[in-house]
Amino acid sequence: MPEPVNRITGIAAPLPRANVDTDAIIPKAHLLTIHRSGLGAGLFSEWRFDDDGRERPDFVLNQAPWREAKILLAGENFGCGSSREHAVWSLMDFGIGCVIAPSFASIFHENCQKNGLAAVTLDEAALAQLVAVVQATPAATMTVDIETCRVTAPDGREFPFTMEAARRQALLEGLDEIGASLRHDAAMAAFEARDRAQRPWIHALPTA
Amino acid sequence: MTTPRSIIDKIWDQHVVADLGDGRVLLHIDRHMLHEVTSPQAYAGLAAAGRRLRRPDLTFATADHIVSTENGRTDDTVPGGPEMIRALRANAEATGVALFDLGDIRQGIVHVIAPELGIALPGATLVCGDSHTSTVGALGAMAWGIGTSEVEHVMATQTAILRRPPTMRITVTGTRPAGVSAKDMVLKLIATIGTAGATGYGVEYAGPAIRALSMEERMTVCNMSVELGARFGLIAPDEVTFAYLQGRPFAPAGDLWEQAVDAWRALASDPGARFDAEIELDVSGLTPQVSWGTSPQDCIGVGETVPDPEREADPKRRQAMRRALDYIGLEPGTPIRDLPVDMVFIGSCTNSRIEDLRAAAAVLKGRRVAAGLRALVVPGSGQVRRQAEAEGLDRVFTAAGFEWREPGCSMCAGMNADRVPPGKRCVATSNRNFEGRQGPGARTHLASPATAAAAAVAGRIVDVRSLEGSA
Ligand code: SF4
After folding, report:
1. Is the CB of A5 inside 8 Å of chain B's CB atoms?
2. Looking at the 3D structure of chain B, how many domains does it have?
3. pLDDT beyond 60 at A207
4. What interhelical angle do B354-364 and B382-390 show, nearest 10?
5. Which one of A21, A83, A108, A184 makes the best mutation probe of the B interface by having the most chain B beta carbons within 10 Å?
6. Which CATH number goes with the domain that contains B27?
7. Domain membership flag for residue B67
């Protein structure tokens, strides 16, 4: 169940590359687990490490102070590709609490919400400005306020963003979505009764 | 007069359990498919919260992603693999979910077995913790991939929380030339509208060129809907669909079948139904497609040359192209034809069904794989494998020098031991050519089964239509 998130303050790492897919975020070698924890070790592992497991110094998350980043400034269509939720778990396990991008791939976007990772959408121009600021002053912190829907850049400039009400509320409350859905139990039972009559072939399956 | 509705509207309306306000609804899920990689954490979450799996009778499981595809395989695969296979087995057993386990003829790639077993049905909603769930939209189902938390949500509630997606109709016209496959058609579509071309949309594929496809070809098209960014892609059911489904193990039978078919006939979009976007593609002059880069949209006709990033106006696209060419090891202007390849992979949920194997075998008959080239054929399911063996296709493949393997995802994702070594070039019938997809440093060229088979014979990329005796 996700923790409530009101605001994220921290160092922001620039990774303004378009179409970063979930294979890149968490390569498959790290999916061989039945747990959610510990996946930060595999975050961007093919970009972070060379074939011998040594850090590649040119990758942004291997550079001080960005290795401490809490916020990722990303490119459009971030999180495309495979539906693996491990991508979100690995970002969070690494310490990233918020990704800001011009757009997110839809399954990834949903996965963010379910886990309390703030996925914030800003237009290209605003992102380019943020990237420029963090490149000039890497150690300065940025704040993403979910309550007021505002990103405050290290230089004090403010960038308002919009977030769907339900997403915003889920973040702020650390929503137990399944618990909330289960409150519709009566509606579910009513649906099933009606649907069994209308589409019996959906509900009465031959047994294996 | 009621407002004309699209097939997507009809399926949506049928499944709304509760309106959550703010545009979201709880949508009933008719079929839930589980596999070993994305289900264990969902099961763990369910257990931790003390919740039960609401409809085990609508839930089905198989192991496909990390299983070994070696003949005589066991649970042992890559490190960590056996633990996942055993977890799936224990979880399915504990919750009363039907499992198509290793050794069961019904085991296979989850999106191959869902239609094959008659689990996926027209007008049904079907989800799986896997992005290529869109495959079974071919039957007229609304089918989409979900993350593990959503898997847990469906386990507990048999519903998913959704916003109604905008709808897009992709009308495909013209007659597909001989020797050009459904795979070429969908690759061309992605190259034309791009990997973000249908982002967030629910897509209906329509038009004469779609109607003319076999059921399995429709699956190939719907499979790659997610490569267009679509939430799902479907094709209205017709006689082709019904003929395919009748008699399948989990499909309705007897009176229930008649009743179901009547309902399914009413699913097609009404004349005048409104879509939020419309796209047309004419496939009359289509040629076999091959990818040159690291995105499925990086596709060209086999007779064309690798594009030049410097001619690209959009700076971001230019940069992505440069990066792709650097990774794939190609120069702008190089003809894609005659490019030497090291490996060929025929398989995956895009192209591992019986018709795919027949198409590849037709090319391979009486021919040999080029010296030094490794070629794998991995049937999508135990049933596909058995059918192929009954038709003697396995002997065509092995006589040509292909490895004939057990069903699974295999080299599509390289999650088991089947990988393309760094820097090696592979023609693959799968759906993604991302960096590292088939293994770190692997260079993937997406193509149809016939094109892949032709490449295996020639040891380089060729136009399958130029091989003597091939259609
Ligand atoms: S065959 Fe490939 S794309 Fe299909 S489910 Fe398996 S890994 Fe995913």
Report:
1. no
2. 2
3. yes
4. 40
5. A83
6. 3.30.499.10
7. yes
pTM beyond 0.90: the answer is: yes
Alpha-carbon distance A44 to A57, whole Å?
13
| B280 occurs within a structural domain | no
In a domain, B259, yes or no: no
The answer to whether the CB of B109 is under 6 A from ligand 1 is: yes
> In a mutational test of the pocket of ligand 1, which residue from B35, B36, B69, B132 has the highest number of ligand atoms less than 8 Å from its CB?
B132
Which pair of tokens denotes residue B310? 């410097």
Domain ranges in chain A are: 7-175
Q: Which of B141, B163, B185 lies at the terminal end of a domain, its last residue?
A: B163
Architecture (CATH level 2) of domain A7-175: Alpha-Beta Barrel (3.20)
A13's enclosing H/E stretch is strand A7-15
B253-282 pLDDT, tens digit each: 999 999 999 999 999 999 999 999 999 999
Task: List, for residues A41-63, the tens digit of each pLDDT value.
Answer: 999 999 999 989 999 999 999 99
Contacts of A203 in chain B (CB under 8 A): 57-58
Whole-angstrom distance, CA of residue B88 vs CA of residue B325 = 40
Strand, coil or helix: B86: helix
Say whether B412 counts as a known binding-site residue: yes
> Does any domain span residue B344?
yes
User: How high is the ipTM of this complex?
Assistant: 0.93
Which residues on A lie below 8 Å from B28 (Cβ)?
A: 188, 191-192, 195
Q: Which domain holds residue B309?
A: 289-467
B195 touches chain A (CB under 8 A): yes
What is d(CA B88, CA B101) in angstroms, rounded to the nearest whole number? 9
Portion 89-118 of B in contact with A at CB < 8 A: 98
